[in-house]
């Protein structure tokens, strides 16, 4: 079985595959302070809860935008699974040309999303990933990674609003019934939810123009993709497991 880690700044998604079948997955907090043993025990408990035998894990793959955590996870892989993990980065076969001025600058998660998106949906394609940062990635009809855009994520914006203002409260991220809020909480929710849905539509429409128009599919992924996607005009589909599926695909291309 393959254990796949998509490690983000806030959360990591861990999936377990039996060949091409995703048996289950977990979303856990990314903690730079956790030791290899703490991660090992945490995973052992998750395996036990889902009645999966950890001894069946034969391969591990990591995609990380948090370099300091890789060492602890590599040590965990060696100690608890006797496996040397594949870490997505320079030198790893993706099968996708990266048409970036400096390909090493592209986050591993963005490349993994692009690989999975093109294989599952074809191209041209735009992928919107709602993580700690909200990223937009463009893939050509030939399967080339063209570039994209990066904006602060919704949680960052919400936290900044709460921390930098004296009287505005921290609010739950839910969609208000109306854009015109009748109280402070609803007004903040309106600005965040409808503001970000408008941001997404604006960037996607400009990207489509630069790509020459025509039939360009737009896929959303990430923890809060469903929350924002339903209020956009441009997102065609939500695929919450896009990154994890991409890790499996890249593993297969490198094994």
The CATH topology assignment of the largest domain is Nucleotidyltransferase, domain 5
Structural class: alpha/beta
CATH class annotation of the largest domain: Alpha Beta
Query: Into how many domains do the coordinates divide?
Result: 2
pLDDT under 50 segments (min length 5)?
Answer: none
Question: In brief, what are we looking at here?
Answer:
With 255 residues, the chain is an alpha/beta fold. Helices cover 38% and strands 24% of the residues. It has a five-stranded mixed beta sheet with strand order 3-2-1-4-5, with helices on one face.
Tell me what you see in this structure:
- With 255 residues, this protein is an alpha/beta fold.
- It folds into two domains: 2-87, Nucleotidyltransferase, domain 5 (2-Layer Sandwich), CATH 3.30.420; 103-247, Nucleotidyltransferase, domain 5 (2-Layer Sandwich), CATH 3.30.420.40.
- The protein is 38% helix and 24% strand.
- It has seven helices and ten strands.
- The protein has helices spanning 36-49, 70-81, 108-121, 154-164, 184-210, 225-229, 242-254; strands spanning 2-7, 11-18, 21-29, 59-64, 86-87, 125-130, 133-139, 145-152, 217-222, 237-238.
- The strands form two sheets. It has a five-stranded mixed beta sheet, covered by helices on one side. Strands 8-7-6-9-10 form a five-stranded mixed beta sheet, sandwiched between helices.
- Helix 6 (225-229) links the parallel strand 9 (217-222) and strand 10 (237-238).
- It is globular and about 55 Å long.
């Amino acid at each position: 079985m393959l254990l796949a880690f998509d490690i983000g700044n806030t959360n990591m998604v861990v999936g377990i595959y039996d060949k091409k079948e995703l048996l289950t997955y977990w979303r856990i907090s990314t903690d730079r302070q956790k030791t290899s043993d703490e991660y090992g025990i945490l995973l052992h408990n998750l395996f036990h809860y889902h009645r999966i035998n950890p001894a069946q894990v034969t391969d591990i793959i990591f995609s990380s935008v948090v370099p300091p955590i890789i060492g602890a996870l590599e040590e965990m892989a060696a100690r608890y699974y006797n496996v040397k993990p594949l870490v997505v980065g320079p030198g790893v076969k993706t099968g996708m040309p990266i048409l970036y001025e400096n390909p090493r600058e592209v986050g591993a998660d963005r490349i993994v999303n692009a690989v999975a998106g093109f294989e599952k949906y074809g191209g041209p394609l735009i992928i919107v990933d709602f993580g700690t940062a909200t990223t937009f990635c463009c893939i050509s009809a030939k399967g080339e990674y063209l570039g994209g855009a990066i904006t602060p994520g919704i949680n960052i914006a919400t936290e900044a609003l709460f921390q930098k203002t004296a009287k505005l409260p921290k609010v739950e991220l839910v969609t208000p019934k109306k854009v015109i809020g009748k109280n402070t909480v609803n007004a903040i929710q309106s600005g965040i939810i409808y503001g970000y849905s408008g941001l997404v539509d604006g960037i996607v429409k400009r990207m489509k123009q630069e790509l020459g128009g025509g039939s360009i599919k737009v896929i959303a992924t990430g923890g809060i993709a469903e929350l924002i996607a339903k209020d956009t005009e441009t997102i065609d589909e939500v695929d919450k497991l896009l990154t994890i599926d991409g890790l499996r695909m890249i593993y297969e291309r490198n094994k």
